């Protein structure tokens, strides 16, 4: 029987896996890295960039707040006066938990994966709001190029520290690039503003021992896949079934792999049922095992409602028994 790591590699390289890859099982995620990201349920707070966040009780996630003068960037042409790079923590004490976790991972069994969020596009609209960020791409492209370069440099500085401290061989990087039905920006605009930044970031990781780049965008982004390949993404995690997954596999299989197909909104909700989970997982597994990993579209191996991921994994196991 192949290890989880071996089975993943056989899947994404068009080899001979002996079962479906089961969601995130091939990665041991090191979530202890001191990135400054906070998750404060039921609270309002400012992060290390000065972005105001809220996570209202009863909601499934947090979101940045920009109304009533709370946006960090109020005028894009004056972004240099508003945005300051947070200090990057480098002390052994701050990294101790992450280092201990990394050292405990059996890298023959799983990839030691660092996590990074928010990504470049998300940072632009976290700082100023979605509408203002999108309008700035049209109205003030020079300022947006400068801001994106600034954010890219910060990411690279953080990557240097993560690589030095925990020596990862995989990266799970978040940046949502679309809604369920379209990308947020056109392919031409994506190529101009975001592709150069990610080519720098992902090439740096690969030049420094990271074998596997997994990018999360739970969205429609089929029109951006050629750029994903160019920037070095190995696995697009979060691919929704609003994308034509069979067509993506036919056109791009062997150049990139796809992880998702199980829409979290259709399985992970208050009154979820095993029957509903089975339908979604079985449909996802019909995409086959070459270059495809059945997985919830959510960007971490977590669930909003207890038992959902266990139910998903059970169906994947059952589908493996019949398919292999």
TrEMBL record:
CDD domains: CmuC_like. Residues 117-287 form the Uroporphyrinogen decarboxylase (URO-D) domain. Pfam families: URO-D. InterPro entries: Methanogen_methyltrans (IPR052024), UROD/MetE-like_sf (IPR038071), Uroporphyrinogen_deCOase (IPR000257). PANTHER family: METHYLCOBAMIDE:COM METHYLTRANSFERASE MTBA (PTHR47099:SF1). This is Uroporphyrinogen decarboxylase. It comes from Acetobacterium fimetarium. The lineage of its organism: Bacteria, Bacillati, Bacillota, Clostridia, Eubacteriales.
């Amino acid at each position: 029987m192949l290890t989880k790591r071996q089975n993943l590699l056989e899947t994404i390289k068009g080899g001979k896996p002996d079962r479906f890859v089961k969601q995130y099982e091939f990665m041991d995620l090191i979530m202890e890295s001191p990135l400054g990201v906070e998750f404060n349920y039921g609270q309002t707070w400012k992060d290390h960039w000065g972005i105001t966040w809220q996570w209202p009780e009863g909601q499934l996630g947090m979101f940045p707040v920009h109304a009533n003068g709370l946006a960090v960037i109020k005028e894009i042409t004056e972004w240099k006066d508003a945005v300051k790079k947070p200090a990057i923590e480098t002390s052994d004490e701050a990294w101790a938990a992450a280092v201990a976790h990394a050292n405990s991972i059996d890298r023959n069994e799983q990839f030691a994966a660092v996590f990074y969020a928010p990504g470049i596009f998300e940072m632009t609209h976290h700082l100023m709001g979605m509408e203002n960020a999108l309008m700035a791409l049209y109205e003030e492209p020079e300022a947006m190029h400068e801001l994106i370069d600034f954010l890219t440099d910060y990411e690279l500085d953080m990557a240097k520290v993560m690589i030095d401290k925990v020596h990862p061989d995989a990266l799970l990087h978040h940046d949502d690039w679309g809604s369920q039905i379209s990308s947020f920006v056109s392919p031409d605009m994506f190529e101009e503003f975001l592709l150069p930044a990610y080519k720098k970031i992902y090439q740096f990781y690969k030049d420094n021992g990271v074998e596997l780049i997994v990018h999360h965008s739970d969205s429609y982004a089929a029109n951006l896949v050629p750029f994903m390949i160019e920037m070095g993404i190995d696995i697009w995690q979060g691919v929704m079934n609003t994308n034509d997954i069979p067509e993506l596999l036919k056109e791009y299989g062997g150049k990139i792999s796809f992880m998702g197909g199980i829409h979290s909104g259709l399985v992970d909700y208050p009154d979820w049922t095993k029957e509903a989970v089975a339908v979604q997982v079985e449909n996802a597994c019909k995409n086959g095992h070459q270059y495809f990993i059945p997985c919830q579209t959510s960007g971490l191996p977590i669930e909003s409602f207890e038992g959902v991921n266990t139910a998903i994994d059970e169906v994947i196991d059952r589908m493996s028994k019949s398919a292999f």
